[in-house]
Amino acid sequence: MSVLAQLNLKKGDVLSADDIKRILSREQRAQVQESAFRYLARRAHSEKELGTKLRRKGYRHDLVDEILADLRKKNYLNDEQFAALYARDRLASKPIGERRLRYELHQKGLQAETIDGIVRAAYAEVSEVELAGSLAERRKAHYQDLEETSSRKRMQAFLLRRGFSWDTVNEVMQTF
C-alpha cells in the first residue's frame, strides 16, 4: 500500500511543510524496505550483506539501520539461521574446508562465536577428510594426463585452495 493511500489524502487537501516532509520521509522508508524485501526474496542475507547493498544504492545510513533493526525484530534477518543455511548449502554444492568456510562466513559479517558454532555443527555431520577425499576423487580425472608428481602437486594445491588443512590434505594424498 502506498504512503499516500495510508495517509488517506484527497484531492484538494492542503499540506503544510511538515506534512510534506513527513510524507517524503515515509516514502523513502518504504523504498528502502521494498529494496530490502526484494533482496531477501532472492536469497537469505546476513545483516552486514543486506546493509552494504542498501547503502550502496544510496539510501541514508540511519534509515538503513532502522530498516535492518525492524527486519531483525520481525525475524526476517537472522544471522545464525543464515550462517547455518549457508554452511549446509556450501558444503553440499561446492565442498570446502573448515578454514575457507570460516573465512567466507567472516566475509559475510558474522560474529566469531556464531562462526565457531556453525562450523562445529557443519563438520560434526561430515568429516573434513571424507569431504576432501570425495572432492579429490571427483577432481582426479582433471589430472590423469599429467605425471604423477605434477598431478599430486596440483591436487594438493587444489585442496589447499579449497580451505582444507595441511593435515587433511596429507591424509587424503596418502590414498591418492
Describe this structure in words.
- With 176 residues, the protein is mainly α.
- The protein has two domains: 3-73, Winged helix-like DNA-binding domain superfamily/Winged helix DNA-binding domain (Arc Repressor Mutant, subunit A, Orthogonal Bundle); 79-175, no CATH class.
- It has ten helices and no strands.
- Helix 2 (17-42) packs across helix 4.
- The longest helix is centred in the first third of the chain and has 26 residues, at 17-42.
- It is elongated and about 85 Å long.
- The N and C termini lie far apart (61 Å).
- The relative contact order is 0.09.
- The model has no long low-confidence stretch (mean pLDDT 90).
What order do the helices and strands come in, and which of them pair?
Layout (H helix, E strand, L loop, with lengths): L2 H4 L10 H26 L4 H10 L4 H13 L5 H15 L4 H10 L4 H14 L2 H12 L8 H14 L4 H10 L1
- Helix-residue proportion: over 70%
How many β-strands, per DSSP? 0
Q: Report the uncertain regions.
A: none
Number of helices: 10
The rough form would be described as elongated
Radius of gyration: 24 Å
- Biggest pleated-sheet summary: none
Structural class: mainly alpha
Distance between the ends: 61 Å
For the structure shown, list the relevant keywords.
single chain, Arc Repressor Mutant, subunit A, 176 residues, mainly alpha, elongated, 2 domains
Give the gist of this structure:
The protein contains ten helices and no strands.
